Amino acid sequence: MIKITASDVNALRKQTGAGMMDCKNALVEAEGNHDAAVDILRKKGQKIAAKRADRAATEGVVLSASDGGFGALISLNCETDFVAINEGFIALAQSFLDAAMAHKPTNMDQLMAIELNGMTISDKITEQTGVIGEKLDLSRFEIVESDFVASYIHGGNKLATLVGLTDQVDTQIGKDVAMQVAAMSPVSVDKDSVSQEVIDKELEVAKDLARQEGKPEEMLDKIANGRLNKFFKENTLLNQEFIKESKTSVAQYLDKQKKGLTVTSFKRVGLGL
Prior knowledge:
11 helices; alpha+beta; 3-stranded antiparallel β-sheet; Tetrahydropterin Synthase, Chain A; single chain
């Protein structure tokens, strides 16, 4: 009979995050072999993941971070809010974000292939599915690269943003614009970057509304274009009124901070969005 010590159990628990009894049982089954016990816990995760594959993972956390000209954003989902607010789950998501910041992957496949303590992120998610007992899904991964990138996480870790700027600025300035993206949910940076599909949809809605209001048919195009301009002002980031300075657009605010300063791109991800 192989003797399993408390230090053996603690070492396995520290590496995997599994419960004490799960670690002890895995070590007993593996006859004290640490690596084999890790594989046993991973296989347990695979079985649970297969059973829960059709479950909806709609809770979770959304985190972002930035450092100089690079920013990353992830959404790690689970099934229940009880798990989403657990410190261990948040720490797991943070470890994935830290790995993204350190390795700078450009897509989800590259992120999933990064190794953490001898295990890829993909395998770690499977393992932790067994530990936690819920479906886990790394559902979103976004990056922004620019001369300067700012990040913002809304309270509760349910919504996060990234914003790329054309020059280095004070951190608070970048954060304020990232908060603007979180609060006002712009559809694009400016009107020139709004897709034609969105423009066509807005024009059609505006025409239908004008018809319902009894406007003459020959006036519909002019009215629709006027409402489209209002849409651009309210829904494109640089044209929106800055939330911290009324009667000033985001573009005007940035230009006041540094001549010619503007936004290159942004990302906004929230649970269910």
